[in-house]
Each structure stands twice: as C-alpha cells, then as structure tokens.
Design goal:
Elements (H helix, E strand, L loop, with lengths): L9 E4 L5 H14 L11 H13 L4 E6 L2 E10 L9 E8 L9 H14 L4 E7 L4 H9 L3 E12 L2 E11 L12
Parallel strand pairs: 4-5
Antiparallel strand pairs: 1-2, 2-3, 3-4, 5-7, 6-7
Helix pairs in contact: 1-2
Length: 182
C-alpha cells in the first residue's frame, strides 16, 4: 500500500499527467514479464498515442492513485475493428511492481467493468499473457470472468513458448437485448 497507510487509494480517470508513470509501469512488464507479448517497450509518445486512441473511442482509461503516485492502471480497448464487435471490449490491467498482490487490482478491474457498463457495452474479453499468470487469471475470475479458452504456445518471449488465456464477462444487459448503439 502507500508508504503512509492513511493515504487513500483512489480510482479515477487517467490524465495525461499520469502517462509518464504508466509508461514506466508498462516498460517494466514488457522487459521482465510475460503478461504483455510486446518485446520492446513502447516510447512515451507511443503510449500517449494509445491513450488518445482509447479516449477517441470513448472508452474508459482508469488509474489507481495515492496522491500523485500511480499504482496501477486499466483500460478498455476496441476488441476488433469490425462493426459487429462494437459492443465488445478487451481489457488491460497493469500494476506497479511493488504494488502487485495488494488488492489494488481488485478495486481497479470492477471500476473498469462499471465504467464499461455505464457506456452500455455488452461483453469484456481478457487476453491474459502466459497461462502461468495465475494472479491475473484469478483476479479476472473473482470479477466475474469465465475462462473460455487457452491458445497454446502462441508467443515466444524470454526464451519460452507462452500461452494466452481467454476469459470473458457479460456487461450490463449482456446478450439479453439488442445493442442500443448503431
């Protein structure tokens, strides 16, 4: 948690001023982890472009913060570009390395789900890098996601073949009614 346990952790919309810390968090995961299948960390400018793209698509991008410190972030991105997928999003969630396992993701992911439901989105897909990434898999399951498949050995990183785990969760009215957006 924060150095001072009395400092609250807030979940809020991401701001441009958060992007340097977000870039540092993601850089760590690209270099040292298997959650992302990127092998070279994107530049700050690329991360800013990705952030702008999320906002341009009117999708949520959230951060977990204490004061000015970003402890984690989560966003919903376009699942696929074809029109029939317009009500389905793919989520991404990353924590600062020293904050992993402290329950912050358990606050951040439900907030992202709620933000997507408020936009009348209907399905959320999680593509978890590495079937050994049990922390992320369990977090998604605790937040109502169901495992729908494993793609075996589809990525090669850090000298190993890696799986991706697919999880899915209905949002709001799910598939019980037609979508309200054109």
């Amino acid at each position: 948690m924060p150095e001072n346990d009395h400092d609250p952790i807030d979940i809020r919309e991401c701001r441009e001023t958060d992007l340097r810390q977000i870039t540092a968090i993601y850089t760590h995961h690209v270099r040292h982890g298997t959650a992302s299948f990127e092998t070279e960390p994107p530049s700050f400018e690329e991360m800013a472009r990705r952030y702008a793209n999320i906002l341009a698509n009117e999708l949520p991008y959230l951060v977990a913060v204490s004061g000015d410190e970003v402890f984690g972030y989560a966003y919903a991105g376009v699942y696929r570009p074809r029109a029939a997928y317009r009500d389905t999003v793919e989520n991404s969630i990353y924590m600062r390395p020293d904050q992993i396992g402290r329950g912050i993701g358990g606050r951040l992911l439900p907030a992202l789900v709620s933000a997507c439901e408020a936009r009348d989105l209907r399905q959320m897909i999680a593509v978890v890098g590495d079937s050994g990434n049990l922390g992320s898999i369990r977090l998604h399951e605790r937040c109502g996601f169901a495992m729908v498949g494993v793609l075996r050995a589809v990525g090669f990183k850090h000298g190993s073949w890696l799986d991706t785990v697919l999880l899915q969760r209905s949002l709001g009215r799910g598939d019980t009614t037609a979508p309200g957006r054109p």
